[in-house]
Amino acid sequence: MLLTWDRMRAPGCFLTLITFPVMLRQASGAGKWCYDSQDVSCGPAHWKDVNHNCGGENQSPINLDRTRMHRNQNLGNIIFQGYDRAPPGMWRLMNNGHSVLVRLEGETVIGNMNISGAGLPNTFQALQFHFHWGSPMSDGSEHTVDGKQYPMELHIVHLNAKYRSVAEATKDPNGLAVLGFLFTIAEADNPNYNTILAGLKNVSLKGNSVDLASTFRLDNLLPSMEKLSRYYRYQGSLTTPDCEEAVIWTVFEDTISISHAQLNEFVDTVHFTAISETPVKMKNNFRPPQPLKNRKVYASKYTMINHSASVHVSQFTFLFLLLLGQMQLHL
Ligand SMILES: *[C@@H]1O[C@H](CO)[C@@H](O)[C@H](O)[C@H]1NC(C)=O
Ligand SMILES: *[C@@H]1O[C@H](CO)[C@@H](O)[C@H](O)[C@H]1NC(C)=O
Ligand SMILES: *[C@@H]1O[C@H](CO)[C@@H](O)[C@H](O)[C@H]1NC(C)=O
Ligand SMILES: [Zn+2]
Which of 16, 19, 75, 138 has a CA-to-CA distance to 151 between 20 and 30 Å? Predict the structure, then answer.
């Protein structure tokens, strides 16, 4: 009894009583996360406080270090089904406050576009695609290749056909398959992006959505089909909270080109914020690379990357510089 009373009077106990309401408030605000461009206090470094998954062992994105990849001869061509025709129905463009995404599935049906083969354990059905981008001044891809970040990244999210919802699939390391495409800037516009770009003004604010003018062949958005046999593969996570480690990642070696003006339309038009809030432009909505830890990254059968080839190049460069140095000595 006495011991209990003493404890009750201990300062630590009062501290507990005082901090309790604060903790309650944090718990009810759980799920609030953002990018550093909105507020560093809820940016990617703090996501593990929102959900402990985000501090896990198999997080995405990662830096794809081509000198440490393992070539896997079983990673052959991906079988794309339905990517080569505009499906019936409507695709909905939405601003979810973190990205702009296109919902590919109808009210009840999915399965208009599938991927399989290429080491995937099942058929995976396309659900939605979305983008991560930087700013007019800086790059905004999530994956980096040999430490290099790219201006933008497209993610096409697919659901393992044995599941009926993302909620079910996120409990399985093979629940989702995401295709990641990096962008490079070209002089010319990429007209295949016009339908999406035209819809951006209708999803300028968080919570906005609009039906796109038409569906289209999904492969129009991508590098040409024969280039899609060159990719990197690893086991990872969703790149936003709750960071579930349920994703088979495929990131392609070949990039999609887009003009500077087209990329700027994303930054100029879309906002992180809803109508009632002070407007904040949506930019730099990417998570930086996460530690690889114990994972391996595989290069597909047809990737052109070769570690020893790149060593040769640097040896040649060395010789060349040596030669150049000697020539200068002679001059
Ligand atoms: C996609 O896969 C589902 C389930 O396996 C199948 O019912 C559907 O016909 C496939 N779609 C295409 C375009 O092949
Ligand atoms: C999209 O925005 C444009 C320009 O603001 C407007 O004219 C058009 O009606 C909007 N479309 C839809 C479907 O809301
Ligand atoms: C690069 O080539 C060497 C020799 O042909 C081979 O042993 C190695 O596995 C290759 N590496 C990759 C990543 O393809
Ligand atoms: Zn993404």
Answer: 75
C-alpha 65 – ligand 1 centre gap (Å): 34
* Cis upstream peptide for 44 (omega within 30°): no
How many Cα atoms sit within 13 Å of 286 on the Cβ side?
27
Is residue 178 within 8 Å of 249, Cβ to Cβ? yes
- What DSSP letter does each residue of 73-102 carry, written as one string? TT---EEEESTTSPPSS--EEEE-SS-EEE
Q: Is 176 in a helix, a strand, or coil?
A: strand
Please name the residue whose Cα sits nearest to atom 8 of ligand 1. 111
Contact 254, 225 (CB under 8 A): no
Return the pLDDT at 269. 98
What residues does 126 pair with on adjacent strands?
A: 158
What is the average pLDDT across 145-163? 97
Q: Which residues contact 288 (CB under 8 A, 6 or more apart)?
A: 44, 61, 142
Model pLDDT for residues 64-123, shown as the tens digit of each residue: 999 999 999 999 999 999 999 999 889 999 999 999 999 997 655 678 999 999 999 999
DSSP string, 13-28: HHHHHHHHHHHHHHHH
- Tens of pLDDT, residue by residue over 210-233, are 999 899 999 999 999 999 999 999
Structural domains of the chain, with CATH = 17-306 (3.10.200.10)
Residue nearest to atom 3 of ligand 1 (CA): 111
Cα–ligand 4 centroid distance for 162 (angstroms): 22
pTM for this predicted structure: 0.84
Over residues 178-183, the mean pLDDT reads 98
- The rounded Å distance from CA 186 to ligand 2 centre is 28
The amino acid at residue 290 is Q
The residue contributing the CA closest to ligand 3 atom 11 is 306
Q: Give the pLDDT band (50/70/90) at residue 328.
A: low
Which is the closest atom of ligand 3 to the Cα of 70?
Answer: 13
